[in-house]
Structures are given as C-alpha cells and as structure tokens.
Design a protein that fits this description.
By secondary structure, the protein is of the alpha/beta class. The strands form two sheets. The chain has a six-stranded mixed sheet with strand order 6-7-8-9-11-10, sandwiched between helices. It has a five-stranded parallel sheet with strand order 2-3-4-1-5, covered by helices on one side. The two termini are about 20 Å apart. Helix 9 (about 160-170) packs across helix 15 and helix 12 (about 210-220) packs across helix 15. The protein has helices spanning about 5-15, 30-40, 50-60, 60-65, 85-95, 115, 135, 145, 160-170, 175, 180-205, 210-220, 230-235, 240-255, 280-290, 295-300, 300-320, 365-375; strands spanning about 20-25, 45-50, 75, 100-105, 125, 325-330, 340-345, 350-355, 380-385, 395, 400-405.
Length: about 400
C-alpha cells in the first residue's frame, strides 16, 4: 500500500473529534486508507453502505442501526444514507468521546447543507484526493509550506519532458497509476465515469438529461484552467443556465470539478472575479480529450493548460496536510495581467506562482508577479515561475524560476 500523507492529520482528528469524515471522489483510496488504519492504531469495525443489506438497515432504522454497533465504527460511503447524520448527532451528544465515528463519503457534505449542519461542532472534515506526486515517490511533499520560508532551494531534481508528459497522462487515481498501458487506463476511466454518473450523481439528485453530464465533462476538460463562463457553456450544451449550474454543483459535490476562485482585495484595482475551471485529475482530462503523448508534444497550448491544472491540483492535495493551511486562488485584472496561482496564508502573506511548460523563462514571464509585488508590498513573500528547466534562478527581489520538481521534493 502507498502511504497517504493525510494519514497523520486523520489520526490527529480521531484523537479529539467525535466524528471524522474523510471524503473525496470515488476510487481515490478512502476505503483502503481507513481499513489500513483499522488494522494499525484505530481498532474499529468496518462497514460499507455499498453493501445492500447494510444500506437497507441504515435507512430503515438509523438510530437502531447505530445502537446495535459497537464503537468505534467505520462507516464507508455514508452519503448513501443521509438519514444517518441526525442519528449520529444524537448518539454523539449522549456519548461525546473522540474517535467514535470515522465516516467516508464520495460527496462533499459542505455542499449538502442538510447533512453538514447536523454535525456542526462535532465533526472534522478531511479530503482525500488522487495520489500526489510525493505520495507516489513515498515522500512528504511540503512545497506549500516551504515556499513561504525564507530559504531558497539550491538544487532541485530535474524532470525530463517525456516523464512530465507521462505523469500528466497517468494522473493520480490509484487504479490508473497501476495500469501501464494507455489502452487499459482508458478503459478504466471510461468505466469509472459511467459508474459514477449512474450511481453517485443519480443518488445525489434526480436530474433530467443525465446524458448531458459526459458532454459537460468533456467541455470542461477542453477549457481546463480557463475562466468559467456559464453563458458560453450553456450555449455549447444547449442547456438553460439554471440546469447547467445544477450540473456543475453536482460535479463539484462529487469532487470531479474543483473551481479555482479569483483572489481579490481592496487594492483599488478592477479585478476579474470569475473562477477558473479545473478538474481533479489530469489523467481524467486526458481521457476526456483523447490526448496522447504525441499530441501534447505537438500542441504547446494544450500541454500548458494540463500542466497548470496538474500543478494547481498538487497544491490542493498538499494543502490537506499542510501545517500552514493556505487558500488557493488565481489573480487576473480587467486589463489581462494575471498570475496563474496564489497561495494566501492565514496571516495574509501571499506567494504568487506561474506555471510554464517551457524549459527557459525570461523577464516577460514575471510581469504578473511584479504587478502583484507592487500591489501587496510587505504581504508579498515571493513569486516563483515553475518551469521545465534545470536551474534555480533569481529574477530580482523575491522573484525566482524553480524547476517543477520543487513541487514534490521533500
């Protein structure tokens, strides 16, 4: 088993929270992680609501079902029986002990208020994403914390272009990583999407025109890291905007789509407020677009979009186990000056990041970062252009070019 970097935070949460919910998209390894934990230092019985008998019992009499279970207990895919949340609340209020329930779910309860409100103050939420690059290398990737530190790395392991493209195409889903053949990965992604749409999305909401979801996903894949434009998407799909927004909410609730919000502050500037489109995995994007290594080599713009999505999701993953817990944004002015990614610490300090698929960078690649430095003053910690070259290079006060390998180098 590949150890997950969020496991340390999961253990800490179980030590002081009555209920811990580990959520994330299907097939990211949630069940594997909690069962491994149950066999090591969290002795708990494991039950999954994917089992028809267990699901029927939980739905028929939630309170009686819980009363008959010895605690602590692990309940997998708990979103399939939302009736359980009120019963868990009542049980925890009677027996307020840490680590009583470890839940997993393939739907984001923060986007399902009727569920999350039941356990306010009683439940800690953690998210498990597909493998990070550090996890695949059996290391603790802590770029998110390190980039705020004063130290600049002197040497970073170089990642060749062919290896970078391979990582983009494989992505981080455990089943996809385990398959060396592009054909077999494609078969898995196809089955995965069919099952998820027919099961989780249908369970979450009774929606019309379910066949539009795959087309929407393909459109989102083709617009990865572009600004989200509901009007244009609705026209392309031939759907009312109200229906489109319901679909987008479902994709976000099942962790397939991860919108990147715009950063703004009272800086006296007109800023674009639209989020960027992101999907949770570049292997999934490549499957939806039918992309091969040869095509990425020949289409720099497509490679750049996938690489930016890749970097953004690596940061999202690392934030789940980061000590600093910054927020992730993008920055763009109405005049078109932009910074691909911004990390904002709870203290208000910011780091700006640009992502380049090129092996060389120049002064022009720092235009957006220079503007951000001017606007922020002392809040600006540093600006980094992540590129496919080999050297760590300074480009003025607080500005650097770093090889992409910095993302997962311990």
């Amino acid at each position: 088993m590949i150890l997950r970097n969020v496991a340390e935070r999961l253990r800490a949460a179980l030590a002081d929270s009555p209920v811990v919910l580990l959520n994330g998209a299907r097939q990211t390894g949630k069940s594997t992680l909690v069962q491994w934990l149950a066999q090591s230092d969290y002795p708990a019985r494991y039950l999954t609501l994917d089992d028809a008998t267990v699901l029927a019992a939980a739905r028929d009499d939630p309170a009686g079902f819980l009363a008959g279970l010895e605690k602590p207990i692990i309940l997998d895919e708990v979103q399939r029986a939302p009736e359980l949340f009120l019963a868990i609340k009542a049980d925890v209020d009677r027996h307020r002990k840490p680590g009583r329930y470890l839940l997993t779910g393939s739907a984001n309860v923060l986007l399902l208020p009727q569920l999350s409100e039941s356990l306010v103050g009683r439940m800690e939420l953690l998210t498990l994403w597909p493998f990070s690059q550090g996890e695949l290398a059996s290391s603790q990737d802590r770029f998110v914390d390190a980039v705020f530190a004063a130290r600049t790395p002197s040497e970073i392991t170089h990642l060749g272009r062919a290896e970078l493209i391979r990582r983009l195409l494989v992505g981080g889903y455990p089943e996809a990583v385990a398959r060396s053949s592009p054909t077999r990965r494609g078969a898995w992604f196809g089955s995965y999407l069919t099952t998820l749409i027919q099961r989780d999305i249908r369970d979450l909401a009774h929606i019309e025109r379910l066949s539009a979801i795959p087309r929407l996903l393909s459109l989102l894949a083709s617009r990865a890291t572009a600004l989200l434009n509901y009007s244009e998407l609705a026209r392309s799909l031939g759907l009312p905007q109200s229906t489109l927004k319901r679909y987008m909410a479902l994709l976000e609730a099942t962790f397939l789509s991860q919108p990147l919000p715009a950063w703004s502050a009272n800086l006296g500037k007109r800023l674009v407020k639209s989020p960027k489109v992101m999907l949770n995995d570049t292997g999934l994007i490549a499957h939806l677009l039918g992309v091969s290594a040869a095509r990425l080599e020949s289409e720099p713009q497509l490679l750049g979009a996938l690489l930016e999505n890749f970097v953004a999701m690596e940061l999202v993953k690392q934030i789940t186990w980061s000590r600093m817990q910054p927020k992730l944004y993008h920055f763009r002015t109405q005049a078109g000056r932009e910074v691909d990614l911004i990390l904002e610490a709870p203290s208000g300090e910011l780091v700006g990041l640009e992502v380049k698929a090129a092996a060389t960078v120049g002064a022009a690649d720092f235009k957006g970062l220079r503007l951000l430095r001017e606007l922020l003053g002392g809040r600006f910690v540093r600006g980094v252009v992540l590129y496919t070259g080999r050297e760590v290079v300074p480009f003025g006060e607080g500005l650097y070019a770093w090889p992409l390998g910095a993302l997962w180098q311990s």
